[in-house]
Amino acid sequence: MRQKGLALVLVLWVLTLLTVMAGSFALSMRRESSIMFGMKTRAEAQAFAEAGIAVAELMMLEEDPLNRWDADGQIYEFSFDEAVIRVRILAENGKVDINRAELDLLLKLLRHAPIDVDMQARVANAIIDWRDQDDDTREDGAEKKEYQAAGLRYAPRNQAFQSLEELQMVLGVDAVLYDWLEPFITIESGQASVDLDKASAELRYMLESEDNFAAKPITGKSDAENAVPRVRAFSPTEQGGEMPGEFEMQEDDQAQPGRPASGALTIVSEAMVGEGVTAGVKVLVRRSSNSGQTFSVARWQPIHSKVHSLFAYEMENY
Where in this chain does the record put each T2SS protein K first SAM-like domain (predicted)? Predict the structure, then answer.
């Protein structure tokens, strides 16, 4: 009788173990399936975002000026298949050139940044100290001694910025500040001033604002009506064309009769599929003002930060 009881306990123990193993296996499979579905959905969103770059390239060459897409920071939205795609084109001469901007212009931008008021002048002067060709520390600036005091093992290059990412090495510029600044700055314009006609709505508002305080980053909920970009609905098929396929960076692309704005441009494309899954890409392109020249892609960068998502702006607000 005792042996039968032990056998029953053993059988129950084995059944319990098998049940736990089966449940664990099912949970593992469910998680893997969810991960694979998420990866597939994100890959689809990325492909749609890249297609948005091709659409932008075509629309900048549109003959009809009423249909041609402008590099003024407004957002164009269209749907294709199950995706909603938003595209924004920004002229580099409508941004603050961190290699050329004087202190006043840098301060106008930084006073709206998500940093303390006392950090605004420090960061602005540290930017100038990084790019100037001397070792003299500006008031509130930073040269080698200040970097050493901060525990950093490098000093300012005392040369022009070679990339936007280099700005993250400047004393006082952390990841949060850089992510906020990135859409508003450039090293491409070569100008000390900003062409406000080509500036984004957010940057134009900040540079023209007389508010002498550190404002919160501007979003679609801003009280300033003109501080957010317009969102325009667009249908590629209504323009007499078809949605292009995969975007290819070909050197022998020929220009269409229309002519886009000359100079360097940033094209931002973001796609949303499924239940709010988004992916984006940002491309820096250059084009000669002469008809017949091609777009050349200077930089191709996937978007990881959601700080300036194109889907942060509501269509019904405009």
Answer: 97-187
In sequence order, what E strands does the chain have?
Answer: 72-80, 83-91, 96-97, 185-186, 231-233, 263-273, 277-287, 295-303
pLDDT band at residue 171 under the 50/70/90 scheme: very high
- The residue written with tokens 């899954």 in the block is 277
Ordered alpha helix ranges (H), 71-174: 103-110, 117-131, 144-149
- Segments making up each domain of the chain, as ranges: 46-93+228-317, 97-188
Structure tokens at 70: 């402008």
189-218 residue pLDDT tens:
999 999 999 999 999 999 987 654 444 444
- pLDDT tens digits, 302-312: 887 777 788 88
CA separation, residue 160 to residues 163, 164, 209, 260, 272 (Å): 9, 11, 28, 29, 37
d(CA 205, CA 196): 10
Closest CA to 268 of 87, 25, 112: 87
Q: Is residue 117 a contact partner of residue 212, using CB atoms and an 8 Å limit?
A: no
State the first-to-last Cα distance of the chain, in angstroms, to the nearest integer: 83
- CA 5, distance to chain mean position in Å, is 68
How much is the pTM?
0.74
CB 96 within 8 A of CB 183: no
Q: Does domain 97-188 have CATH number 1.10.40.60?
A: yes
